[in-house]
Amino acid sequence: MKRYVEKEEETTNELSNWVGIELANGTKGAIVYIGDSRYHIICSNSSSRSNECCGGVESDGSSVEEVLNCWMNTDSGTKINQIYCFDSYKELMQWFANDIEG
User: Would 34 be classed as within a structural domain?
Assistant: First the structure.
């Protein structure tokens, strides 16, 4: 797992509460709490300047770690290429929205 730090990169093996992912197809995603004790990956669609759900309800989990395990243990769909842990929700959202042009 990677920890994103401004102007440098360091690695860690601990998940934070604010996790972003990059799928094998280059799509960025953020793992967010969607209510009802569920976390889900929301992906950015830079071509349409919008966000969309990645995966179905079977990809949801009761924690960030459970969502990652669901994605890594499935045989279908796009695989997670990189995992980024952030120190705050603000940093996660800045990274997530970086490629969206307004």
Answer: yes
